[in-house]
Amino acid sequence: MNAPATASMLQALPAEHRHRLMRFAREVSCPQGARLFEEGGRADRFWIIRTGSIDLDMHVPGRHAAVIETLRHNELVGCSWLFAPHTWHLGAKATTPVRAYEFDATMVRSMCKDDPALGANVAQWVGGVLAHRLRSARTRLLDLYAPYGSGGFL
User: Fold this and answer.
1) What is the DSSP letter of 87?
2) CA-CA-CA-CA torsion sign (111, 83, 150, 58)
3) Which listed CATH number (1.20.120.790, 2.60.120.10, 3.40.50.300, 1.10.1060.10) goes with 9-141?
4) Burial of 71 (0-12, 13-18, 19+ CB in 10 A)
5) Is the pLDDT of residue 112 over 60?
6) Angle between helices 15-22 and 116-145 (to 10 degrees)
7) For the segment 61-111, what is each residue's pLDDT rounded down to a tens digit?
8) Among 22, 29, 139, 150, which lies 20 to 30 A Cα-Cα from 16?
9) 49-64, pLDDT tens digit by residue?
10) Which of 56, 67, 53, 66 lies closest to 95 in space, CA to CA?
């Protein structure tokens, strides 16, 4: 299935795989201002936003954390859970009250290992999101800290 890099799980995964994952989803709520995770922490879960918004941020020494991207409805929060060493590369903070589906990373990795087709689809989905976020981080940091911004030359 070829979906855009920023595709939601609904767009990126075949219905069968989506339904299998959703059987293990847990509905959670986070108040505005709550930190979901910090850079360097153990990446043991991920979320799909139902309502609200979450800022992904990056620690910048000597400065406030730089917001890399704001995530909203149906977007994946957290990519580091899939790739060893399973530590967060960014931080995440709820900018509004958030309702989301939460997934246990160990359980999903085990499912992916047991079903190579599921694993390939999940890896392609998360990898595409991760590539998009890397480009966003680069652009955002250039805009914030480079002498002339990103200049649109990516």
Assistant:
1) B
2) positive
3) 2.60.120.10
4) buried
5) yes
6) 80
7) 888 888 989 999 999 999 999 999 999 999 999 999 999 999 999 999 999
8) 29
9) 999 999 999 887 888 8
10) 53
Domain locations along the chain: 9-141
Report how far residue 105's alpha carbon sits from residue 80's, in angstroms, rounded to the nearest whole number.
Answer: 10
What is the reported pLDDT for 111?
Answer: 97
Would the pTM of this model clear 0.90, i.e. be above it? no
User: Is 60 exceeded by the pLDDT of residue 1?
Assistant: no
Residues sharing a CB contact under 8 Å with residue 116, sequence separation 6 or more, in sequence order: none
The SS3 of residue 66 is strand
For the chain, how long is the longest CA-to-CA vector?
49
